[in-house]
């Protein structure tokens, strides 16, 4: 039985479909999970290893190299990079993108085993490597907590309280605290007294180390019972530590008699945080991946409101980034855009087909959208940026099926057929072509969604939502549309007027006849326009991801390598004061020493470096950002010429890296620096559009090297370690133990008094053999300065230096890269050295390669479906000849608006190709059907094309106008222009080029007269 006819004869089943779609869609919308970006596994782990006392090159050679060699044996590893600093190795391991999140736990277990085995062979003094596989956790609810007037201990207690309470919130996975003041207990012996009493620093450190230790004391067993013996209570206050006794050479001396003891902040902390110039710490809340982040965010807000009465007065919890608010706003904006798109579709249909057709097609469209939401909920596809985008992309194709069926049914009923016969007639001719065209439209996105790598994981919801919505639109077009047409369309009388006798149809028919007569001239014109547009495509700006529509931007500030964190902090205080006077700044959060906690999936924080500062600046609106950025950069660069001051917009997609990067790899650091310097010179000479050209190895630093007097020192019983310990005591301080304050472990440092002048040659070192202090100048043959690399980067076990740069905001990375590409690639490289491009060029190339691997298979399936649909070759060839020409309208649209061709524009182009093929299939199928009725070729072409004019035009107009609400959306604007411009031109291709090609392919032997 014909589906369309059955939907009218058995309306109960059709009404069930309508009610399930409607109410199921409402349920689906309310129960769908909501995220900002698709749940995406960051397949990276970080291995941190400490090697105190070693320089960066020693760390690279003695720590990173053995660990990287062991890690490289894992077949799952894609890339290994490392940053080697004095005393610390940071290795990042990236797993191949074809492994999904379910396989990662086993991979991380193997990684830990490899690292653990390799760690046994590391030099003495190297810490146990720490493997962090939660590197990719996203703390989307990100707050700054200010507590002016509170002590550092109270701030720690407050942070502990907040973290404990927020972890009880349903749906919260983790809470991260960062930026708390780093405290320590400082024991500062009077050197004159220590030398006079012959009390070594080692003796003081040993006394402190056991002052508050916890140790098993055993059990007492008696009368069948066992009673535990607790460790004797230790010194649990600063005053008690000061009262400790130090035993040396048979004497006992009170620590307070020879040393000052106080509690204070560490001089050079890892991180300092301020919010609007006020000292703060950050609170990051991560939701469970299975939870709706909007609901989690609301529960967190409710918990914070509940805790408000328990939080002391003066404590403020201020938002830096609230993912749940961003997601909710995006969902609401989607609803508005959806309502506007449906309203536009209904209005256009009412204008060209009458209000009855508008109700029929508009209702089908609405049911298709809400039905898609139902299936998204069933298959656990969250509402996020990509799935919402998929619904918007699908909007352009969803309406086609219903328009074709409704238009065919309406025309048949106007000619006197009953609704049952009209539905059967309309559906029987189009249901198979529409199904084939729908599947082809879905397959256009299959290469993206079914890709086995990271691209497929990130964009799977795009393919799934488009597939669901298009198949559902076909089903509803054959069921709901006929039933509603049965209710709304009026039956006319046989012979009543010509349905295609209107002016528009007559004008199109006359134009088409002229085009068929001048077919070769039309083909030449189409080919010429296509060639010109393909050439013009080179002038279209290329951009991987557009700027975000969240009113945030970043400041990156870098002073010369080796600058203390205190100076970096002071400089940023000046920037904070400048921002405080601006009315367009809502908030400014400052991070000194490293980047922020990962608060969104695409944010990438800078690694720890005392000379680095970072700011997250929020404005009232997106329009405020460009002027503020320009003013701020001008101020920062003028005020701090010694530093590197730059701002950066928040973008959709991966961020954090330089848009322009060139990497040089080889073994000799000196040669690498020479190559980087040469590349920098060439870049700056080739383009004026590079900003802040720099290398990731940064500046070299001076280091002081004591020349160990082997004979004298060994005779005196002073080792190299003794000299190192003495120098550590006289500078940063030796760690002597920990001070336990509830759950906190506060380090205790033994150091020289911080105030007063300092000279290395005035220091004394204790000889355990002689049991007395000796001047250091007798133990060394002087000191020398050495220049050393303090940031040594490696990539896949090879030292690699990267030359990076920023670009002006009005240019794209592709434009600037084109200006410098040839001069860099022409650089002569020594044997054993190589160059590779990074930055946005590499990201874009990798993404395109990933898509390119899958698209051939999708294209093959699409071609096979079109061939099987017609059971012929010529018809599919006609349709596929139109596809390259679809670029014409895209180029005209993007060049006319000045917008770049972004990743979303690529998706729009794929969608456009699907629409064009769909319209082409329906038109060519109609020509075949009319020819089968016995009409002459040209008359069949004209008659079939005229009958398809209204569906094709309406589908194009409704889609183009339906995209209009997206022109104000930063993420989708380039996609909207791509579809709008491309579809406008594609409509001409379908209505003119397809008939012309049909005549050329099937008109051999036909008389030349029109």
UniProtKB/TrEMBL annotation:
Q: Which Pfam families match?
A: ACR_tran
Q: Please give the GO cellular component terms listed in this UniProt entry.
A: plasma membrane
* Annotated keywords: Membrane, Transmembrane, Transmembrane helix
Q: Name one GO molecular function term.
A: xenobiotic transmembrane transporter activity
Cleavable signal peptide = none
Record's keyword annotation contains Transmembrane helix: yes
The UniProt entry, under InterPro entries, shows: AcrB_DN_DC_subdom, Acrflvin-R
Membrane-traversing stretches = 12-30, 333-352, 359-381, 387-411, 432-452, 458-484, 520-540, 901-924, 952-973, 979-1001
Record-given protein name = AcrB/AcrD/AcrF family protein
Name the lineage.
Answer: Bacteria, Pseudomonadati, Pseudomonadota, Alphaproteobacteria, Rhodobacterales
